Amino acid sequence: MSYLGTTGELSARWRPVEEITVLDRPRTSAHFIAPGSLTNGQYGMFRWDMAPGASGPRPHFHRTFSESFYILDGAVRLFDGQRWVTATAGDFLYVPEGGVHAFGNESDEPASMLILFAPGTAREDFFVELAERLESGRELPADDWAEFYARHDQYHV
User: Fold this and answer.
1) Which domain does 59 fall in, by range?
2) Helix 123-136 vs helix 142-151: angle between axes, to the nearest 10 degrees?
3) Domain of 69: which CATH number?
4) Of the four, 103, 120, 138, 140, which is 20 to 30 A from 39 by CA?
5) How far is residue 133's CA from residue 145's CA, in Å, rounded to a whole number?
6) Is the CB of residue 53 less than 8 Å from the CB of residue 86?
7) CA-to-CA distance for 97 and 65, rounded, in angstroms?
8) What is the residue-level pLDDT of the chain in tens, covering all 157 positions?
9) How many domains does the chain have?
10) Comparing C-alpha atoms, which of 90, 41, 97, 39 is closest to residue 67?
């Protein structure tokens, strides 16, 4: 999608912090800074805050979108499909479609990172539904979980 006009247009979107939806979980907080619905589906960007020792997803991949991780603060363990590395402020990991990856905070300090994914699928729906499933306390059958992950383009390895 390219802009083909010659004069520019008034189309920038500003979002004050009070408009950003935050999904608070016991050990993590997801700030949906720029969901795909705000960026015309071009990308999505979340801030992911983790408490000390907060686990993250197990190794997985996505078929239809890439993900990038930029560490803001603390130490985040990142898996690039081959090895785990300890990333600190300013470190970056790009994961193309199909790339195996995972993350977590194994340190004794809080950590924060930006997650950017492109194109901007409604990734916030995955995290909201996951939180609802976990908070319900219900035991769900394996095929229900498999359908949930497939519907959200998340495939564990």
Assistant:
1) 17-156
2) 160
3) 2.60.120.10
4) 103
5) 10
6) no
7) 5
8) 789 999 999 999 999 999 999 999 999 999 999 999 999 999 999 999 999 999 999 999 999 999 999 999 999 999 999 999 999 999 999 999 999 999 999 999 999 999 999 999 999 999 999 999 989 888 889 999 999 999 999 999 9
9) 1
10) 97
